[in-house]
Description:
- The protein has about 150 residues and is an alpha/beta fold.
- It has a single domain, classed as Glutaredoxin (3-Layer(aba) Sandwich), CATH 3.40.30.10.
- It is built from six helices and seven strands; from the N terminus they run ββαβααβαβαββα.
- The chain has helices spanning about 25, 45-55, 55-60, 75-85, 100, 140-150; strands at about 15, 20, 30-35, 65-70, 90-95, 115-120, 125-130.
- The chain has a seven-stranded mixed beta sheet.
- The longest helix has 12 residues, at about 45-55.
Amino acid sequence: MSVAVGERAPAFSIETTEGPRRLDELLAQGPLVLVFYSEDATPTCTTQLRGFRDEHALVRELGSHVLAVSADGLASHRAFAARLGGLPFPLGSDPELALARAYGVVDAEGRRARRAVFVIGADGVVVEALPHYQPGVAEQFAAVFVALGVEG
């Protein structure tokens, strides 16, 4: 079962391409868009992260920020980000899938995270949960921004 809207977001600490990050520290900077993706450099995950990269200025304008997480290691994340021409947000490494398990988004094989997006308010409460996120579905992408305060 994945984390649902209205629930307190599970706390975490994770190594990222920008150093260690903890949920409480991230939320002190404003709402968080927590993006789970399956694997570095796959076509669908590339599309998923490009979407958040391309709209990152709007995310920041709304006082929010992004953290994207997969089971891949930091070296793989850095190479992936470089292939994308850089990313304005960190990539977190969850090799044991502890964070994916906490949010209920481990894939059926138990090897990776499913593509999922959670918008967590600055108070630590989940305001949008998309546990089966599909990058090609415009309504799901828009739901993230509605949760951040954009008029629907």
